Structure formats: C-alpha cells, structure tokens
Amino acid sequence: MLKRLMVVLDSDIFQPKSLDQRVLVRPAMLLWKMIYNILLGAVTAAVSLWLVFPILNGSTRRYALPFPAWYPYDIRKSPYYELTYLHQSVGTSLVALGDYNIDMLISAMMMYVGAQCDILCDNLRHLGGDSSDFASLLTHCVKHHTKILKCKTPNFTASFDSRQKICRFAEECNDFFNFILLGQFFTSSVCMAMGLFRLALVTPSSFEFYTLSFSILSVIMQIFTYCWFGEEVESKSSKIAYATFESEWIVQPSHVKKNMLIFVESAQHPVKLSTFKLFYLSLDTKKGPTIVIKRLYCFMTIAEFTARQVREVIDECGFVQMGHPPYSPDLAPSDYYLFSKLKKALERTPFFF
Length: 353
Fold this sequence. Notes:
This protein has 353 residues and is mainly alpha-helical. It contains 10 helices and no strands. α3 (80-125) packs across α5 and α4 packs across α5. The longest helix is centred in the first third of the chain and has 46 residues, at 80-125.
C-alpha cells in the first residue's frame, strides 16, 4: 500500500506545474522539517535520560537497569549486567528511532495531502477565460481532486468520469495508518496517564522528574503533530470550493457553469482523516484526540494536589514513611493452618441446600 502511494505521488498530476506552486507548498514542507527536528530533540533527550538514569542516581551499584525486566540468568554478575545494560540501551534506541520515523512518515503523508489541496486551489484560481481552455482545465482539476479524495462522481459528462480518482489518495493514506494510529493513541494515552501519576509522586527537579517530563513531552508532541497536520488537511480541503469561484467563471457558457457547480457541490465536504471513524485528527477538543490530553491534564492536577496534601500531613504528624512490603499484610496465619485443616476434614463431603 505504501509503495502504491509513493507511485501515485510521483505521477505528473501531483507535481507542481510552476515555480509559484513550488513556493506555495514550500512553507508546509519547512514546517514539517521543523517539527521533525523538534520532536527528534525531545525523543533523544527522553531516551537518553531513561538510559543514563541508573548511572546518574547511583543505582548501578545495586545492578539496576534502565527498564526492570526478568532474565533467565543472574544479571548481578559481570559481564552479564554490562551486556544486558548495553542490550537495553541499543534496543530502546532502535525502537524509539523506528517509532519516531513512522510518526514523521505519517505526518509527511498528511502534509502531502494538504499540499495537493494547495496546488489544486491554485489551479482552480487560474482557470482561463476561454471556454474550451476553461472546460479542459476544469476537467484536469476534477481529475486531480478525485485522485486526492477517492469520492464517487456523478455521471454528468464523460469527461468527468475520471473524477473517481483527490479522495483516493487521502483515503488510501488513511487506510494505511488506521491501525498504526489506533495503537499509537492507545499506548500513548496509557503511557501519559502512568507518567503523569508518577510525576506527581517524585521529587521536583530530580533526575527522575526530568526524565518523566521529557517522556510525557514527547508523547504530547506526537499526538499534537498528528492533530496539527490533520487540521491542516481539513482546513485546506475546505477552500477548494471557494477557489473555484475565484476563476473567470462568469463569462463561461451555461453547460460549463453547470459542470462547475456540480464540482463545487461535491467539493464542499472537506477531507477529514480519522482512525476508524472513532475520532478525527483535529485540534478540536470536542472531536479530536486532544481531548485525551485535556482529561489527563485534569487527572494530573488532581493527583498532584492529593499527593502533595498527603505528604504534608504525614510530615506534620511526624509519621515515618515505610516502603511497600513484598507481600500483602492482610494474609493471616489462619489462612495457612486453620482453613487448610478445615478443608481437609470437609473433603468429599456433599452439601445439600
């Protein structure tokens, strides 16, 4: 599917036709590159802090690893500990690099959909005054629009039958990253919730505090990047119908105006990228995934306020804080002696109610 999308992007109809169109799409590409570098810095800082955190807080003396895990060997022996630490560092870096580039690839695909909408709007604005040129150029614009959107075209003329090709590109892009985004948003929400809860419990300005902060910042930027480019696609595609009326359509014959109005009617619905229609990639807090960030922020403020209040009361009362025991203190000795003897005596005894 990705290879087919790359072939479509390389076709002539998707290429800028003039220097002005190249200048028109350049800001979107520069914005994507800027977000690429910013997110790369945040991800690098988060991964680096996670990997060097045991070294910074001195927990390597207790053979602590960046990510606690079970291994079928004793990691407290050298060189097993050093090799395991190196394995986690390399593995985590590669996973983060792959995940990050998948995010930016999907963002680039959304950026290209928005750029095609800009090119289409420019083509529509420069439709000529000659009726024959206007009709042929309008047919070309309809073909371009259909390739982006993959929407069904009313059979009002044979020249517009090719319009069943701008929805297609957008819909195939959406099909490509449906499962990816669904998994990303689910795992990102869980990681943010757990990270915000831990952030409310750690000491401010500590190494763990900065590690969690950069991790949460990376996840927020990931979600914001999807929502930003999804909002750009929706905004730019909504201008296609208005761009048609900026052409010299007034002097055209009635049959050309009729075809143009049918095109405008079908172009009034903007492109909305989504994840299985569960929520749309938009900055709108009522329908986009940004509502997740809003809810998690409320949770963080409540958890942080509650945790701080509890710690202050404990300190005022002079209580000594103890760590969690390795077993549940609710287990009574009777669970091991009395009840087991009772069950043995009642073995194979039928009960009738």
